[in-house]
Amino acid sequence: MSEPTLPRRQTLKQLAGLTALGLIGYLRAPRAAAANPATPVAAIPGVGGKIVRRGEKGYEIWRQSMVWHLSKPKRYPDVIVQARSTEDVIHAVQYAAANGLKVAVRSGGHNSNGPSLRDGGLLIDLSALEEIRIDSDQRIASIQPGVRSLGLVQAARDKGLTFPVPHCASVGLGGFTLGGGIGWNYPARGGVSTHSIIGAEIVMADGRLLRATAKENPDLYWAVRGVGPGFFGVVTRLDLKLYTAPKVILASTYILPLAEVKTATAALEKIRQAGKLGHTEPLLVFTHHPEAPDNAPPEQAKICFVTIFAFDESEEKARAALQPYAESALAGSKALFKAEFQPFDFEGLYDRYFSLNDPAGRCARYAVDNVLTNRGAETLHALADHYSKAPTRWCHVLAAFNMGTRVLPDSCFSWVADTFVGCYAIWDEEKDDAANFAWLGDNLPLMDPFADGHYVNEIEARGHPERYPACFSKANWNRLQALRRQYDPQGVFHSYLGHS
Ligand SMILES: Cc1cc2nc3c(=O)[nH]c(=O)nc-3n(C[C@H](O)[C@H](O)[C@H](O)COP(=O)(O)OP(=O)(O)OC[C@H]3O[C@@H](n4cnc5c(N)ncnc54)[C@H](O)[C@@H]3O)c2cc1C
Asked: E strands, 242-301, where?
């Protein structure tokens, strides 16, 4: 193939936003709410941050801003507290416990189920807790839970360090790390980011502030490393292990027709079998061709968009890491487009591949479900035909290969898997909810037969609360429930959505 058949910059830019189309809703609502507090309300002793109660002016905009996307849950907490300090969190929890208010927690607000919004009770919004301290000698970042992906990557990079942060700049580190976390350059970082938590500070149901490390409160340390959106405490600080920052980031992108999915997966499998995946991060996305009209026939519009990222200490090494892909069938006669060995910095990666900037300026409704599997290719083959019937052009299926997740004795993350496959429904209007949830739901029986497990941060729990136990081994789920009873006997904290 000589020349790309599509203008490269335009193609990549248009494909940006595949997993994230709600910037406007996200950016406007939370920040406006924080800057324009509601009318003064009854104080909570010891809490300095803003408080708004149901029925008061400003409540609804603040409530809605707790969830990034536009499928705002119709669930209404009694009180929302924006914490300005750990002390605020302690006092808010004590107040809730004393007044019979169940506590929910929000960090970055990106979870698709909006689990921070519950009916009744008190919601603690941690998004204003954004401190980052870097200890270069120890290679540790000590962060508050409101820190976002871009903030940590930039602060660490200034010291020559990095962390496997979320692929979108604004995703919160709080929920991301607690749930597992598939971060940039995961293959070189031990699979999931939660395993890079080396310490946590936790406000417990009785208001005590406990520290959890491998040595202090090891059962809490085990739980915090993978528990996801159902923890029985508020994490107010995380100590994260940092890694040497890459000096060079290169990406190669290949587009094939959807009908060539087996060509794409076979190419990736061949590279894997040859032991040449190295630390590259290969993503394969089923999506709608950016230049095709909405109503174009699937056989023309639906594509496999494959990108492989190499993070390395030199250009020579990064090019060598991507070379097996350039020599594979991905780059062969079936390719509609290729752009190889493209240099990026992290800002460029967010912008080109996972930007929240939807080119059309749309907001989005959003739902996702997934499998973690060791049969990624088969999973994709099983999903391809159903994907081509997706109700909107923005719906997509994303597979992250070379995951290398591990099961560790000091983490409740439960699965050994080499591939994550997520199905994402993205649409505009409430009237289309049923069609999109139906499309997403119909993916489950297609992909679940290949599941070794599920990733707790990206399941569709609104219709399927039974997915939460399925995100853990039976033993780990039972141990989490036992720890909940031990540490939160009065049920001060909400459990997983749909569970008590
Ligand atoms: C655009 C977009 C991009 C994404 N990219 C990635 C990605 O690259 N990799 C990946 O793995 N995932 C990704 N995700 C999924 C993401 O990891 C989850 O949505 C995660 O739950 C978001 O965390 P949050 O703090 O923003 O969410 P929130 O909605 O604020 O939190 C979700 C829940 O987690 C719990 N929680 C959060 N913080 C705390 C705390 N401090 N203490 C106790 N419990 C807490 C609470 O139960 C809370 O309700 C993405 C999601 C979106 C929408």
From this structure: 243-244, 248-257, 281-288
